[in-house]
Sequence to fold (608 residues):
Amino acid sequence: MRLFLSGLRKLVRRQATWVTFGLLAGLLALIVVAVGATANRPGASSAERAAALSLVTFPGAYDAILSFILGLGGLFAVIYGAAVAGSEWTFGTLKNAVARGESRSRYTLLSFASIAVVIAVGLVAAFAIGVVAALVGANMAGTSTAGLTDAATLGRLPDQFARGWLAIIEEGALGFAIATLARSQLAGIGAGIGLYFGETFAGIFLPDIVKYLPFNVATASVATGAATGGGFGGGARIASVDANTAIVLVVLWLIGALAVAALFTERAEISG
Amino acid sequence: MTGTDGLALAIRGLRKSYGSQVALAGLDLSVPKGTVYGFLGPNGAGKTTTMRLLTGLIHPDAGSIELLGRPFGRRDRHRLFEVGALIESPAFYPFLSGRQNLRELAATGALVAPGRIEELLELTGLRDRAGDKVSTYSLGMKQRLGIAAALLSDPTLLLLDEPANGLDPAGMVAMRETLRHLAAIGKTVFVSSHLLGEMQQMADIVGIIAAGRLVREGPIQQLLNSEGTVRVRVAPDEVARATAALGAFGGPGGVTSSVAEPGWISVRATSDRAGEINRALAGAGIWATGLESGNDLEMLFLGLTGGEPVQGGEGTFFGMAGAGPGPNARGTGSVA
Fold:
């Protein structure tokens, strides 16, 4: 427990945590407010106006906000996971823990557990900021906020959050594992981003294979109801695996990534 | 009784290679409990590799390690709960303060007593800067924090790799006193260093390694008494003749002339032979203008390691291999 809490304290004090969260929440708020402010601009067609208003009109705004967070958040999670895992090698701090007799795999897995908790908090906080921004945008656009308390949508949110959280931590785990294998923060971040976009690119040529790959199953797992990770902010992904199969695959990728990270750390020769 | 009774650390036949490069070629060490053990060797001799092996950061190809009387292998990480270590340069989270770094490190491995962190910050003279981020620390301050980190769990065995790096003279004195105090209360301190003078003042026992093997080990006074140095000064143009005349005293490689101090010749010989050396010079028609005899760890070290780089190592210890003991070589005994 002390190791897990230590992991949380380190993450809270880490600049990368606040920069990543700030970028995500800031972009979300900026876009939603800007859309609200310009929805009724002179010269906008009715289709453009309807599309803009859909982002700030509840209950649909809930799905749009979540979609944005899960889409962009996936990329940020890869970078964040890689930054945290890679820094243990880059700073040389893993060496200190091992030399004190700490279990390597326990240290690795509990480090990730604290990342998972921080991501959960970040997900909820970003969503709350997004909702407030959508209310501001709705006000600027002169749209009713009556759908804010729509029971059906609110009832669906916990399930969407749970799926979204799993999807994002799976993506974070990939970055974490890549940086562990690379033993470097920078190499981990670079390789993680490359894999993220590389998978999208490969999907053009090998859709039947790529649909089972980690970022695609993460997107597919949250594509329930009106919320789709591949829409607002998520980039164009193929999502042909059904959501329930996708969530199983997400869990498998998550376990696989963590197992690779733990096993590699357990067997690695630590120097430098 | 076994051969390792009374030892805090026993290494037998330890071997480690990195690819084709052999770092340790069958190292044996015996570190008695309650002593300060100086671990010496030129760059690339295998000191840091040994330290990494002792802390489980890497694993040996062959050989055995006993920590505090019990075998230490891949599955024996709990042995390290009684060990404190500072390996290579101290590593910390730059975005955390010194105090926070110690607190987070205390969350790993053995439990740390309440109040221990403040006690160590006081001991290492870091209390005033303990709240500042480590990224603002000087090398010496990081080194002090590294020593504090090594002492976190009040270890029975302390492994320190070049702990004096970056310390100012006052810091070095304080560190020496701290380590001597730890040995006095029964702890064992295993310390590697390039600062031979420092080691001569601090260590009870030294082990000297070269090319991954132990070349000499024993109580420091015993080694120095058995392998002293006599330095003579002659006219610079007579150095070659004097070196030839003294060849019989030092044995192969035992007579060296100093490049930095022209005219000075060092002879590997115990101090009671200073008179004979002087007489030999006079017999060759050479008059010594200075003569010093004494026991010097640096000379012993250079004599045993050749003062030359290990193949594939990081370079020569003095950057003038084969050219004598270098500018720092100096007899420490009385002037005859």
Q: What stands out?
A: Chain B touches chain A at residues 52, 55-59, 77-81, 83, 85, 87-89, 91-96, 100, 103-105, 107-110, 149, 152-153 (CB under 8 Å). Chain B has two domains: 7-218, 227-336. The two ends of chain B are 47 Å apart (CA to CA).
